[in-house]
Amino acid sequence: MSNILYLGNTHTANWIRPQIEAEGDYLYTSSNLYDTLAIVVMYCPDLVILDAGLVPAVVEEVKMHLSTIDVEPIVIYDEDELLKVLREKHEMMHPALTVS
Questions:
Q1: CA–CA separation, 86 vs 19, rounded Å?
Q2: Among candidates 39, 2, 44, 37, which has minimal Cα distance to 23?
Q3: DSSP secondary-structure letter at 32?
C-alpha cells in the first residue's frame, strides 16, 4: 500500500481516486499550499503529484517548499500525463502484476 498526494482540482481527484484505491493505495488530495505541506509533513506520501493546471504560482511555491525537505514531486500538465504517471507508479509498486 502506498500513499499518494494529489494537488489539483477536485474533479480530477475524484476521477483518479477509484483507480488508486483499486490498487489498495490511499489518495490524499489538496488544492492549496498549506494543506499540501501539512499532508507531506504528517503522512510522508510515497508519491506527490502536482497538477500544473491548478494555479502555476501555487505549484511553483509548493515545489520550492518541498525541495527544502528533500521531497521530489512529479508535476503533470494534462490528464494523459497523469495517466502515464499512475501507470508507472503501478508498475513500480506492483511489479508482479505488471503485464508486458
A1: 9
A2: 2
A3: S
In a domain, 66, yes or no: no
The answer as to whether 63 is a domain residue is no
State the total domains in the chain.
Answer: 1
Threshold 0.90, pTM exceeds? no
Does residue 45 sit within a domain?
Answer: yes
AA letter at 27: L
Distance (Å, rounded) from C-alpha 41 to C-alpha 57? 21
Grid coordinates in use for 51? 497538477
Full residue range of the structural domain in which residue 24 is found: 3-52+72-97
pLDDT for 13-45, tens place per residue? Answer: 998 899 889 889 999 999 999 999 999 999 999
Exposed, middle or buried by CB within 10 Å (0-12, 13-18, 19+), for 44? exposed
Q: Domain for residue 84, yes or no? A: yes
